[in-house]
Protein: Interferon-induced protein 44
Organism: Stichopus japonicus
Amino acid sequence: MHYCHYVPILQTIKVLIDNDLIPIKSDRRANNMQLPVFTDITDGKIFKENTLFGSEENALSVILFQDAFEVVNPLGSAKKKHKILAVYFTLGNIPPQYRSQVESLQLALLCREVDFKKYGQEKLNFQSGEPYALGKCRSPTEYDRCVEHLQQSGEDSFEGIKFNSLFNNLNYFHVCNPGLPPCLGHDLFEGVVDYDLKLYIDYWVNQRHWFTYQDLNRKLELFKFTGSDINNKPAQINSNKSRLGGNAVENWCLLKLLPILVGQQILDKSDNVWKQFLRLREIVQLVCAPQISWDEIVYLKVLIEEYHEERKQIFPDVKLRPKHHFLCHYPELTVKFGPLIRVWTLRFESKHSYFKRCARNCHNFVNVTHTLSERHQQLQAYNSAGSMFPEKNFIEKGEQLNPEIFSPEIRASLQSKELQVDSATVSNKLKVYGTQYSAGLFVACKCTDSVLQFGCILLTLLCNNDAFLVVKLHNATLLEELGVYLLQPSNDIDCLKVSELCDYYPLSAYPVQGRLLLPLKHNCFHS
């Protein structure tokens, strides 16, 4: 027997909304395409020009994701036998700080991949594959022309299209509008960065002889990572491979920290390959920014064009890959979808881990999709009994604030906020929407065209459910030859509300030869 288990999307949405289980954004922006900043999918052209969203204020936007994953050892004899194809969904109406949490991701369908390949999309009523690759380069008219040719000729494929997407039957959707956003994880970090960064390291090792793979791997092994970098520690690099081989976040971390790791060994900072590497880092910082302006999108387009031209000139014998071409469309797709980090798929892929654990703990693969879908819905029912999402602000271990035990400078910063001491809790760690702020990490406090200032977290506070950080301010100077910021401590201490920071993400700074250097994870929006 062959099974496919579907959890009705409309019924799931109805239960979520009727029981107030999910937060819905109520402050949609005016339908103005000249907004200076893109912060979410609702700022994108696709959303704003959609007839349904333009006419129905309470319309819901559904984000679907499809992927296949192994629930057994992918190297064992049972590989692919129990490979599961999953479809998840969430609502674009959920604010991004909640939408990025696994609890917001709902199950729509589970089936075995071999069954899908046998019976096809008509039986399961959805499309597999990666049509995104052609969705950026076609219009709906071109797409429909290719589909019509397929139907008349009986060919298996035509100009890259194999069949019409069933989603095109929807009234307000077409895959070439476009309706299929890119995934940064696969295109950028497991594509362009994966191959190009390895190419550059090969050049520095084999042609410039500035360091060896043994040196680099030893540094990766002994380096004291802090903050989120601990969990994203890059993998060891195999000198015989043509790519880094790490996963998306590991490759991202290596790209970010490489100037810290080997910057001192780059003896010629005017080296074209080093400048090309810094150009790639800048592209990644802009593409992954949670906020991006029109000016930055225009700059990103120029930067990508320069990157491709330089890449072809420096390495004429190493051809550009299709994912380099995908990168050319990122500025345009940012205008259409908003910041692309809001639509990347890695948050959906984190949902796989639950099903993998569940399948292995059950030790039973008879009708495994039924077992997994039933267990998942039981878990969702349990989560629905309380709050589906973690508390907005959360301190795990804290104590009541006593200003008298702190220095006069810290007391003065607390007094400036007029905090209610009786209701304030102090700790070294604080979570806000799942992001952990810890003492010793840095946050962006002031971002303008002329001034960039970071604060080193000394204390975290929770008062009347508002999150505060007590920070020691550091002035930042960009070291262009390394692509990182040099931090110089000031004598000022300030108390800042987390919601008023220039950027939400806490960063790690690293000491290098007596200097404190801070690499950005993504571009900080300049107000």
Observations:
- Residues 30-34, 126-135 have pLDDT under 50 and may be disordered.
- The chain is about 35% helix and 20% strand.
- The first helix runs from residue 9 to 18.
- The radius of gyration is 25 Å.
